[in-house]
Write a structure and sequence with these properties.
The chain is mostly helical and 391 residues long. It contains 13 helices and 4 strands. Helix 5 crosses helix 7 and helix 8 runs antiparallel to helix 9.
Length: 391
């Protein structure tokens, strides 16, 4: 897409700003009917954002597509990467499986439209911004700003005296769930480190350092071992790639193993039990495994099972047919990094750090959480972006 202006505003830059707003809004969640934290409360303005953030995100996605189509009449289907197409097909099979079991045609149509918006926005429009390293840097900077802004809001909620967002020692934040806010904090920390290492501008470097620190704090406050370990894995891989001497890399691996063991020692399961149901992961993993290891051709849908492991969850929810496309999208992302394919690698070491660090963070976190099957959240939107790279 060539640069052009609307009312004196550069559309390419505007789209990057809109992406930043999308990442800022997408993880706000209002507490559900069966919410665990009984005294949870946030200021009215934050509550309003929680209730309407998804609607605003859909409107922003529609605006991005409209701005793109306004000056780009030609549509080339082969422009989509194989990874993002496979992920889109998987999401559609998941939506269709839910339709089969609950018969809610309206929900199916809404999910399909939303998936199409994501496919076109991330897989086509946003990918068009990646033609040059300077534009790619601006895009990732704005994407980080959105995530960082969300983390800042949550830090304010934690330290301020105008909200009750801590229950039984765990920070629920604006996501209304400690593991979810932990994964958001982890993604911010990993993203910040990847951008910080080669940042030439002092102001931006300071901003990225703040994102790294605040992201780690949110992880720690949440008490989420899955987010802490996933964050540690992503950070360790970035440092591993940045360090060139072999013996130093060995030390990094040893430190990562030690810190992982320390996390499990410091955060024991009983101290993290905010639901009074004991070790829920042990039970839900068994339930997921029981369904997944039957290798069903068609799954049971997303509403019948727990979401504590994305890999098992994909098999149980969509069966062998749907999970084939899910795992194929993951493999395509890994393959792309191994071969160094895609415009992100024109971004030099920073692009390599972003891709490797965030992919490692997501794939490790998916062992403990089901966020890769979410329709909307910071982690799953990051995966949509990673999957959009390629030829």
């Amino acid at each position: 897409m060539k640069d052009y202006n609307i009312l004196g505003i550069n559309v390419r830059g505007l789209i990057a700003v809109l992406i930043g707003f999308i990442f800022f809004l997408i993880s706000f969640r209002a507490p559900g009917i069966n919410h665990t934290a009984l005294d949870y409360s946030v200021p009215p303005m934050v509550a309003a954002v929680q209730n309407y953030s998804l609607v605003v995100v859909v409107l922003l996605l529609a605006l991005i597509i409209t701005l793109f189509v306004a000056k780009n009449k030609k549509f080339v289907p082969r422009y989509f990467s194989s990874a993002i197409l496979n992920f889109f097909i998987f999401q559609e099979i998941l939506a269709f499986t839910d339709l089969y079991y609950d018969g809610d045609i309206v929900q199916f149509l809404v999910a399909t439209i939303f998936n199409l918006f994501l496919l076109f926005s991330f897989g086509y429009v946003v990918k068009d911004l990646y033609s040059e390293p300077e534009r790619l840097h601006h895009f990732f900077h704005m994407m980080f700003i959105g995530i960082f802004g969300f983390i800042v809001v949550n830090v304010i909620l934690y330290v301020g005296d105008f909200a009750n967002v801590v229950w039984k020692g765990r920070f629920f934040g604006a996501t209304s769930q400690p593991n979810f806010i932990g994964m958001c904090g982890g993604s911010c920390a990993v993203f910040a480190l990847a951008l910080m290492l080669n940042a030439a501008d002092k102001t931006r470097r300071t901003l990225y350092i703040a994102g790294l620190i605040l992201g780690l704090l949110v992880c720690f406050w949440s008490g989420s071992r899955s987010s802490l370990i996933s964050c540690l894995a992503g950070i360790s891989l970035i440092v591993f790639l940045a360090v060139r001497k072999g013996r130093h890399r060995f030390v990094i691996v040893a430190i990562m193993i030690f810190l992982s063991a320390l996390i499990f020692t410091f955060f024991d399961a009983s101290s993290l039990d905010y639901t009074d149901r004991g070790n829920t992961r042990e039970n839900t993993w068994k339930e997921l495994a029981d369904v997944a290891f039957q290798l069903p051709i068609v799954g049971v849908g997303s509403k019948q099972i727990a979401t504590t492991n994305s890999y098992l969850y994909s098999i149980a929810a969509t069966g062998l047919i749907g999970s084939f496309f899910f795992f194929r999208s993951l493999l395509k992302v890994i393959q792309r990094f191994r071969r160094g394919e895609g415009s992100i690698f024109r971004f030099g070491q920073t692009g390599k750090f972003i891709f490797a660090g965030l992919a490692c963070f997501l794939f490790c976190g998916a062992v403990f959480e089901g966020f890769l099957l979410d329709s909307a959240s910071i982690p799953v939107f990051i995966f949509w972006v990673l999957a959009s790279f390629g030829r």
